[in-house]
Amino acid sequence: xxxxxxxxxxxxxxxxxxxxxxxxxxxxxxxxxxxxxxxxxxxxxxxxxxxxxxxxxxxxxxxxxxxxxxxxxxxxxxxxxxxxxxxxxxxxxxxxxxxxxxxxxxxxxxxxxxxxxxxxxxxxxxxxxxxxxxxxxxxxxxxxxxxxxxxxxxxxxxxxxxxxxxxxxxxxxxxxxxxxxxxxxxxxxxxxxxxxxxxxxxxxxxxxxxxxxxxxxxxxxxxxxxxxxxxxxxxxxxxxxxxxxxxxxxxxxxxxxxxxxxxxxxxxxxxxxxxxxxxxxxxxxxxxxxxxxxxxxxxxxxxxxxxxxxxxxxxxxxxxxxxxxxxxxxxxxxxxxxxxxxxxxxxxxxxxxxxxxxxxxxxxxxxxxxxxxxxxxxxxxxxxxxxxxxxxxxxxxxxxxxxxxxxxxxxxxxxxxxxxxxxxxxxxxxxxxxxxxxxxxxxxxxxxxxxxxxxxxxxxxxxxxxxxxxxxxxxxxxxxxxxxxxxx
Amino acid sequence: xxxxxxxxxxxxxxxxxxxxxxxxxxxxxxxxxxxxxxxxxxxxxxxxxxxxxxxxxxxxxxxxxxxxxxxxxxxxxxxxxxxxxxxxxxxxxxxxxxxxxxxxxxxxxxxxxxxxxxxxxxxxxxxxxxxxxxxxxxxxxxxxxx
Lengths: 488, 146
Description:
The structure holds 2 protein chains of 2 kinds. Chain A is an alpha+beta fold. Chain A has helices spanning 14-21, 27-30, 120-144, 206-213, 279-299, 316-327, 339-347, 362-368, 386-392, 414-419, 429-433, 436-451, 468-476, and strands at residues 2-10, 34-39, 51-56, 61-70, 75-83, 88-99, 104-114, 164-171, 180-187, 194-204, 223-224, 228-236, 248-252, 262-266, 270-272, 307-310, 331-336, 352-355, 374-379, 393-401, 423-425, 461-464, 484-487. Chain A is 28% helix and 32% strand. Chain B is of the alpha+beta class. Chain B has a single domain (2-144), classed as Alpha-D-Glucose-1,6-Bisphosphate, Chain A, domain 4 (2-Layer Sandwich), CATH 3.30.530.20. In chain B, strands 1-7-6-5-4-3-2 form a 7-stranded antiparallel sheet. The N and C termini of chain B lie far apart (39 Å).
């Protein structure tokens, strides 16, 4: 008896690979050696006992019976009933296992059989190379090309489409929301290490207002704006291994252009979204969630027992900071601008919301901490709150200046800094997300916290993509609560 | 009963990886969390039933018993007799499979155990990431930089 074993690793999640391989009649769609195939008697292709009847491209004819199928262990076992090739007592087992380190798939394919005397090496080589190894390569190509078409994929690259026409929110000139228009745009096919996405939702952030006003010169008009979106992969360019057409994805990318129905962008800036999370939720939370993640886990590691200060504690990032830091065991003090927002902050884990509209809060914090102050200030306010933030910090505290809603924070006087042995960080999110592996880890953390209910979000404000200008005005009015999303 | 499953791909032949890890007393040689190890009663480290007594870098002491060892399947399994982790009925299996497409190895490390209610996720993370994935990362780095 001969035994032939081949194995490989496919750069795709196991669910995608198994979806194809569990279908006993899928092989004429992806395996180049199989010309046409059908299941006898019209039985379903996952019916154990069903027989697939197929012709090879070289003219041979084979009937094989499915004798075991396990969705739990992802095993398919089958045997040859009759064949015009002399493989006798042929039983094959194909098994998939997850590679948890990288969300890939290990594929093991093994068979035992007999052959006429003298033909052992020839037939073992045929099974190992022409069937199994060629099958590995063909399935890779099939998944990369989308895997839905009935015809076999042609040469790699030919599967990718050309330009597509979509709509985008374009800033015509600096000057704010009034300068936005909804226009047709041409979206090119993905190039090397790029991916093209059909976007169903985009998140609105305050940075979009700054960009539209020209305060942040991140685009030269006319140009599409928007920092984050979610949708479905249409096609991928060369050298993209971890994303496939059909994947649910999202991104928060440092180059504006997310307010669009279609977009092509670097694949390493795109993350997969778990099945349980809706696209509109992913689009609404990714940017703010990544910001909260790097603030509580990377810029400063929040530990149980620490006291932290969160400004705008009922805002988008502020709410997430309260929820996350509370989950980590910190005592959370927040500032808010109204009693209504104090209630929202409290609901989200803020132990002590301080209502203040004039950047005065240090005294209340001293009183609440026995005169000591807080271990960390998450400062999104900047210039006008500088003195109060300084006074609110405990000795050896950490001043994390991640935003400047009231103007840029001036350099801190070294004498003042050493008077309290303060640590000062001025982090920029995109410096952290530029590293693809770190971005993936951060996004995984955010989605896990959403799924566990640590991060909670209520979507109250949805607008059509064509009404982006209205959404930006609503955000500026400071009357909205929670995230705003645009739906395509 | 909780199950933890971690798997990875190591850029070396299964023979080479197995030679590096089959020594039941050899954890300090390759696993970053383990400081020192000895086999109780001076048994050989590949005698099924032997007990390894080792100390973690963070100070914890663990005793584990070798339950199966197969050079043919590149596989071993063991149970925890004593540990500070708060797990019961803990049985783990470490298995290598050659990847014929390239000189690589598919490595699987899994465990089943009981734990007090509420500790499931923490222990699953600690074992899956802190022990198993950390071990794989060390192997990937060792075989990637020879």
